[in-house]
Amino acid sequence: STGSCSSRNQGGSRTRCCASPGAGRCYTQTRARAGGRRPQPPEAVWLVVRDLAALKGTWPDLTEATRGADSVGREIWTEKVDGFDMRLLVTESTPVNRCVTQIQSPPGAVFGGRWIYVLAPAGSGTTVTVTEEGWVTNPLYRLMAKLGGQHRSIDGYLAALGQHFGQTVKPEHR
Q1: CB burial of residue 101 (10 Å; 0-12, 13-18, 19+)
Q2: pLDDT (average), residues 97-118
Q3: How many C-beta atoms lie closer than 10 Å to residue 132's C-beta?
Q4: pLDDT of residue 23
């Protein structure tokens, strides 16, 4: 049995509260998607997207990024993003097309989720789409996320990606 849970949808977010023992606590499921076109070919954009440290110094939220491996050899990145220490597991990497990273959330974490990066050829350039699928448990953090905007992190990332190539970018929300 999954216990007693209730859900409600609101503006792209879904709040789910579970009351049974061990079922967890209330959390908000979020999904945000944004993207845009870059004049660079997919191969050039892929090199930056796939190197999770490449935008350090360009993306103000990313202050640290180190590549490593976990105990079974899977690729793990340790990052400090927007003041939070995170461990990201690369769960999928299909060269020049798609990369998926998953936050390795410890027990009791206030947020977690994954980012899905998709690159597609667009003439001589590339369309980049980033989707964030996440959850937030702490009511204060849920409020901060709502006030800061559901696309804040993705927009910052995409703007920094454009800046890396010398462009000013206004991400398109999808």
Answers
A1: buried
A2: 93
A3: 19
A4: 44
